[in-house]
Specification:
With about 250 residues, the chain is mainly alpha-helical. It contains eight helices and four strands, in the order ββαααααββααα.
Amino acid sequence: MLPILQIGPLAIQLPGLIILAGIWAGLSLAERKAFRYGVNANDLYNLVFTALIAGIVGARLFFALRYPAAFISSPLSLLSLNPGLLDLWGGFAAGFIAALIYGQRKALPFWATMDALTPGLALFAVALGLAHLASGSAFGAPSDLPWAVELWGARRHPAQIYEIVGAALVLLAIWPGRGILLSDQPGTTFLTFLALTAALRIFLEAFRGDSTLLLNGLRSAQIAAWLVLAISLWALGKRRGEAFRL
């Protein structure tokens, strides 16, 4: 694990740097492959940029609404670069709404746009696994397997490695022009990615040591993943059914 990259007097948070690199690489890949889905690369770039800005602002504002006392006493904290002062779900909601508004104004086709974004999302998922590996987060459960790694005072499943390999396989599965289980029906690429990612999460959670457990040992992330898998498979079947009727 290497959470801090020390370059002379400069200390760089490596996980954050990997995530930024993942966003840049994912967006670059999506732009290059956008033409395959009939989406303008510039519109796609502006859509993502708008969503990112709105997401960051929204994440900070939602966090401030949850903990107003901290920001009333120190208003400049709203401009802090500390990622711990961000509300993940609030940021996601703000970014999603901003993306929808931009897409409607530009008359971007919803399913084709989601397909065009998918290669970038899949590549970012690989980068996220690398960030987890660098920080030591998303760690595995204790294990005595030969490939277990020493982390946080115990030998554990290398869950971050599982995550990286799984995300890379999903990326190969939906790679534009070479992906498996795909058709030309708009939405197929995105929904296939969603289903595969949900199935991967269900598998990975069995090896995680930091999961939130509910009653009877059920993992909250697995329950959410099962729901996403069911919805994406239903939508995928519906999209393919529409293709057969055309």
